[in-house]
Design brief:
403 residues, mainly alpha, two-stranded parallel sheet, 60% helix
Amino acid sequence: PKMFFERSTVGEANIVNLGELCLFVIHALVFQHSRSENPFRTALFTFQDTQFVNYGEGSQENTNRFLLAYSSLFDAISHSILNDTGSTILLLYSLLQKNPMFLTYVLTRTDLDTMLIPILQLLYEAPERLIQQVYLELVTLVILSHDIVSNKNIQQLRVQSLNWFKERYLPSVSLGDLIVLVLVKVIHTHLKNKESFVLRNCFGILANMSSSFQELHPYSADRLVKLFANISRRYLAILSRSPKENVESNQTEIEEEAALYHDCLLLLVETFNSCLSHGLAQNPHLVYALLYERFLFQPFISDDKLGCYANNIKTVVDYFGELVDRTNIVEWSSEAVFEVISNATHHWKNDSLQKLAEQSYRYEESDDHPEDFFVPYLWAIILSSHTSIPWDVKRSALFGRFI
């Protein structure tokens, strides 16, 4: 696989990557008949690792599966993501979603940063690309965020200064922090156009990872809390609109917007609650950020869905707020307050928090004609990469929103 990705052939006007052409052929064969018997689809989703072959009981079905070195495939995908036109991320999504053996292999890697950092960079620079490619990148992260062990590993991996991250100079942060910061940026970008699929998946990834948060960077904690403040203002503004304003606007759109913001707030308070329940002592910067905005959650205490989580958050900020007030701080400063909080977190007991069911956000591919998404998307990226194909896309009914 690595040879395919690196080898090139010269075309009429530009260099055409042979590996990319091979992927386009594979995808076309796999997705063209996704609901009927398709040997190409079966082969892609069942091939095994040359380093660990499970023949089961020696059945003919197992021995006929083709073999491929997962390590080589992992390396090839990781090194090709940044220069991808869409075919590599589609391959990665397909394997993680449909080939459980390859997914298990990826989750056991201790160097997931080699694959995740390029995906995060693409998401960071997402406005320049097809929204459908953003969908696949996010769903890939959702799939990987299901695994608790992998999430803990991500928190341990350190990322040195990245020249593509422009928000703030961060000489060294955890990979978990980088994921948080990139997702927050993606969320802010898509709040403007209310892209619900993007928003719900971003918040779902955060919620899945939250129980494993370790030593969140102060900038990450601050961005998360300010994100809640931003969305809560939008949501409360809709609720406070007068009946006259609602009549003058599209009522259905208003209700859908309010429901979207409410879902986002719910996933975000679940994230805070999970982090505080599992790792409050390891995340004093999050406690500090929540305490700084201690009245932010008050409007949601009586909310049917958010209320239980908001109450837990209120319990935490009330406890640490009273502790700071009782402490004889000689010279008040953010550093002095944080020191009080940091010292006190080690004595905190979770008994005060209401025990709530753990939430897990999962992506499930629709069984209702998934090819309606994948076939147009595939041919859209083929055409965008190889403009020599003489198709008049304006006269084609295939592409719809993809072109």
